[in-house]
Amino acid sequence: MDSLKEKIIMRQTRPWITAGVALVGAGMVAAAPVVPIAGPLPDIAVTDIELTAVDMVLDLVRHGQSEDNVEGIIGTLPPGAPITAEGAEQAAFLADPDNPQHLADPGFYDGVYASEFIRTQQTAADWLAAAGAPDHPLSILSGLNELNAGILEGTSQDNQLMALLYLVGPLSWMFGQYWVPQLGSTIDPNGMAFQDRFGDAVEQIYNNGATDADGGFSSVAFSHAASISTWVMMNVKNPDFELYFQSLLQGILPNTGQVVIEGNPTDGWTLVSWNGTEVAENPGLLTGLFVDFRDLMVAPQMAGWHIWEAILGGDPADITAALQTGFNDVLAAVTAFPQAVIDTITGAMDDTAGSSAADALGDALAALAG
To answer: Does the keyword Hydrolase apply (predicted)?
Structure first.
């Protein structure tokens, strides 16, 4: 597609140390008072899932340079600061064929979207104008908003401690620990709430395009660096953590940088490229096993969160529905886990070049034991 041109050469990055992350616990237990439910619970029905959805290519684009970027302010509440003159130039450059990451003609996309922030909407508008389509429809989705900073709102991005505290929660969520809080945030209090918010926006974009699609289709969404990178790393089947941490040293994503994913809400998502660097579809053995364990851990956390939300709402029907859905989701994750691990191991053996199947199996067993 037009938005995926030849690779750009990555800038050299400083040495970095990747901290080991322990995959502890398989879920979150919510301690809550018992709420009476009218009548007995219905029988729990387990449904089979058919993976037959059409794939979408989604280009997630960070906004152009904003006044907050220039002043070094963490601003995560809409409407936020506008873009600068340089930011407007960056947005217009997205329509230039000389840009290695230039976007396709607006008419190519099934939908063009932006968050509630001024900076994303201005970036989209300036690109559309430069592409000769100033009147092209632009849909606004609050789910695409920046990852909320909580108590860090308005603090300096140049303060390394503040920047680190802002990323503690998101980094934990990427490794399956959705329960870790985002300090002081009522918008994104934890990974479950953020997953629901941004994931619902992506699903809405998908549904809008899939309505009339007989085959694959594409959409573009203008969002923010932290929300784009966090949700993508939480959800894709082939997360490239080395590439992520290298980009983290440079601010995660540059202004108008892009992350491209492909897939659908039913079968899941694959990372295609990160800021112009293509990503292998097969994540490799260790990353594949990590994703299998991550998916197993996430299911009970999401179920527990939705049940807790229903309990707080106090509607017995909502509580019953949350229990039903949560049970089905956790059971599906537990049932799918053994086969997912087997598929990951056999896939790694098939892709291992120059080594025997026994060596590959030994590596797999060592990874599981470690």
So the answer is: yes
pLDDT at 182: 96
Q: How is residue 333 written in tokens?
A: 């994750």
| Residue where the block lists tokens 């009147």 | 135
What pLDDT, on the 0 to 100 scale, is given for residue 35? 35
Pairing type for strands 258-264 and 217-223 reads: unpaired
Segments in the chain below pLDDT 50: 1-50, 353-358, 360-361, 368
DSSP H helices in 94-159:
118-130
Rg (CA), the chain: 21
Q: Which amino acid is at 62?
A: R
Residue 134 burial (C-beta neighbours within 10 Å; 0-12, 13-18, 19+): exposed
CB burial of 81-90 (b: ≥16 within 10 Å; e: otherwise) equals bbbbeebbeb
pLDDT at residue 350 in the model:
76
Could you give the CA distance from residue 170 to residue 231 in angstroms, rounded to a whole number? 9
42 neighbors 259 (Cβ within 8 angstroms)? no
| 58: CB partners within 8 A, 6+ apart | 202, 205, 206, 218, 219, 220, 221, 260, 261, 262
Contact criterion met (CB below 8 Å) for 191 and 304: no
- For residue range 191-223, what is the model confidence (pLDDT) as tens digits? 999 999 999 999 999 999 987 777 889 999 999
Q: Which residue numbers are catalytic? A: 63, 146
